[in-house]
Amino acid sequence: MSLDIRAGTTPLSSRQNPIIYAVLLIALVIIAVCAAVWFLMLMKKKTEENPEWIEAEKKRPTKHSDIIRLSKLYAINQNDIPLLWAICKTYQVPNLFYSIKCFDELDCVFKQAYNDFKIDGQEQKINRLFLLKFKLDKIFAESVNISSTAALSADTKLSLVLQNGTKIGGTVKDNEKDYIAVSLPQEFLNSKERPEPLEKAAFTFHSPTGMPYAFITRIIRYEKKDDGELMIISHSTDLIKKTQRSFKRKSVKEPCRIASVKTEKDKNGVTAYIPAGNKISTTLLNISGGGCCISSSLPIKEGQVIYTEFDLFDGSYPAIGKIVKTRKSLTEGVYNLHIHFINISVEVQNKILAKVYSYD
């Protein structure tokens, strides 16, 4: 069976055929719809480019749909969405799409939330708050990209990384068109460990937004000044963004005590860590919610579990950690012990994080 739809045997009958009119009508409707969609998209684009509209969008309160879109854009964990929405809703956070890049404003909101949670004694919620804060800080840190060391300002803190992994803290003194002058400890510059001119050297630094970077460059020369000697290095455009830690870290110089540990297991197989022997006084150099670095006269081997005790707050707070790295410091007979916490209470971790974020 075949269909034979003829337009007509004469020009007049062809023009009177309803199928032709239907096809033309459908085509006109499709063209009209496409034109309308194009016009609406054009108007939407013009509206969104309007400074007044943008300013109004920045100021309006965050919606739940904003957080959903944000979570997809920045891969925020679904488990963090309820807490983030509760904070935005309770404290009337302006549109998070914009305020997420306003560090100081968002930090004030989280500090207020922390104080409210603290009053209610919600330790688990406080812990989740700090973990969420760190994730948002990473998004903020990644919002600004540095492509050259020419962007480093004077007084930027950086570290020279030696071949054995030891980091020597320094400061950018001058950043000129053809070189960077770096101030390093004179004790190091007078030692045999300092690299020779024309050698390549690795450096790390943090951008103003907190993003860690690394780069390799060449040492041009050493230059003597009235206040000491400076390392002169060439610029680099090969900057590498480093993977950030799981917690924000804070440099300190506070008393700390360590001791050996013995382990015992209860009937359920849960391991208990018990301090053994005398506590040894050391100095805490930096700390985070996940670990710390201490200065000690004891070259304790990597992999050893130790008891640590800090005086950072209104009392002494303990944590059990494993030494992941032991390095000689510039001072003779002193070692830097890098420790990862393996057993720490939520309350103590929250105390540390509050110290790191300057919330207490």
Can you walk me through this structure?
By secondary structure, this protein is an alpha+beta fold. 34% of the residues lie in helices and 32% in strands. The chain has ten helices and 13 strands. The strands form two sheets. It has a six-stranded antiparallel beta barrel. The chain has a six-stranded antiparallel β-barrel with strand order 8-9-10-13-12-11. Strand 2 and strand 3 (180-183) form a beta hairpin. Helix 7 (103-119) packs antiparallel against helix 8 and helix 8 packs parallel to helix 10 (346-356). It is globular, with a radius of gyration of 31 Å. The N and C termini lie far apart (87 Å). The mean pLDDT is 87.
Topology, element by element:
Layout: H1 11-15, H2 18-48, H3 51-59, H4 64-74, H5 81-90, H6 96-99, H7 103-119, H8 123-141, E1 157-161, E2 167-175, E3 180-183, H9 186-189, E4 200-206, E5 212-225, E6 228-233, E7 240-241, E8 249-265, E9 271-288, E10 291-296, E11 305-310, E12 317-328, E13 335-343, H10 346-356
Antiparallel strand pairs: 1-2, 1-4, 2-3, 3-6, 4-5, 5-6, 5-7, 8-9, 8-11, 9-10, 10-13, 11-12, 12-13
Provide key terms for this protein.
single chain; 360 residues; alpha+beta; six-stranded antiparallel barrel; six-stranded antiparallel beta barrel; 10 helices; 32% strand
In short:
This protein is α+β, with helices and mostly antiparallel strands and 360 residues long. It has helices at residues 11-15, 18-48, 51-59, 64-74, 81-90, 96-99, 103-119, 123-141, 186-189, 346-356; strands at 157-161, 167-175, 180-183, 200-206, 212-225, 228-233, 240-241, 249-265, 271-288, 291-296, 305-310, 317-328, 335-343.
